[in-house]
Amino acid sequence: EPEVTQTPSHQVTQMGQEVILRCVPISNHLYFYWYRQILGQKVEFLVSFYNNEISEKSEIFDDQFSVERPDGSNFTLKIRSTKLEDSAMYFCASSGQGLDEQFFGPGTRLTVL
Amino acid sequence: DQQVKQNSPSLSVQEGRISILNCDYTNSMFDYFLWYKKYPAEGPTFLISISSIKDKNEDGRFTVFLNKSAKHLSLHIVPSQPGDSAVYFCAASSGGNKLVFGAGTILRVKS
Fold first, then answer.
1. Which residues pair with residue B67 across a beta bridge?
2. What's the CA gap between B111 and B108, in Å, rounded?
3. What are the tens digits of pLDDT across the range A60-79?
4. Residues of A in contact with B32 (CB under 8 A)
5. What is the pLDDT of residue A72?
6. Per the CB < 8 Å rule, is B46 touching A107?
7. B25 vs B23: CA distance, rounded Å
8. Residue B6 pLDDT > 70, yes or no?
9. Is B20 on the interface with A (CB under 8 A)?
10. Which of left, alpha, beta for B26 (phi over 0: left; psi -120 to 50: alpha)?
11. pLDDT reading at A40 higher than 90
12. What is the pLDDT of residues B40-83, one digit of tens each?
């Protein structure tokens, strides 16, 4: 069964450093998403991506964040200068159509020290 | 952001009995609702969904009911199995795109 994959499973970084989280969505899907879950809190939407551009972003997704689909299979989330409060589980998701269910990857645990 | 609420942090059910998980929402623009199941250290796994034009959707042991006038949905699991023990998230969207999640309910099914 096709699935969303994410690498790395755990990333530890120093405050102020750049991180890139990687995702491989399900191959025939068209819509891609990033969500995060801070420990003990809800899963929160960050950004959606369709047709090589951002279709929607939350207020969390500020200038420190960017997304890219560099090669037609990977979907990346970059945090330019990490802050302590960026520590969270980051989930990638994809869907075939905008109104379909979203399938989530296993997540990347980001720890900012 | 309290647009999607799951007021019960946890639920304990005996194996073989029915589990009923509840979810309330405030945004009348939501038109698609989903339930996800999550185990520790894994991503949410899609379970079942329902469009706002329906009031019930069934898939095997899982049934989702939607009451639009009450802005309430529920997930019924019958019969409950120990492997159903997980965190269950209700989520909603408006016109596709982003999902708004509830806080989750921990379900424990006792054998």
1. B72
2. 10
3. 999 999 999 988 789 999 99
4. 99
5. 79
6. no
7. 7
8. yes
9. no
10. alpha
11. no
12. 888 999 999 999 999 999 999 999 999 999 999 999 999 999 99
| B56 in reach of chain A (CB within 8 A) | no
Question: What is residue A102's DSSP assignment?
Answer: P
Contacting residues for A72 by C-beta, under 8 A, at least 6 apart:
none
Tell me phi and psi for residue B26, to 5 degrees: -115, -20
List the structure tokens of A47: 């950004």
Angle at B102 between CA B97 and CA B103, to 5 degrees: 140
Of the residues A43, A103, A109, A110, the best mutation for testing chain B's interface (the one with the most B CB atoms within 10 Å of its CB) is A43
Report yes or no: A53 and A66 within 8 Å, Cβ to Cβ: no
The yes-or-no verdict on residue A97 having pLDDT over 80 is: no
Residues counted in chain B: 111
**Residue A85 backbone dihedrals phi, psi, to 5 degrees:** -75, -5
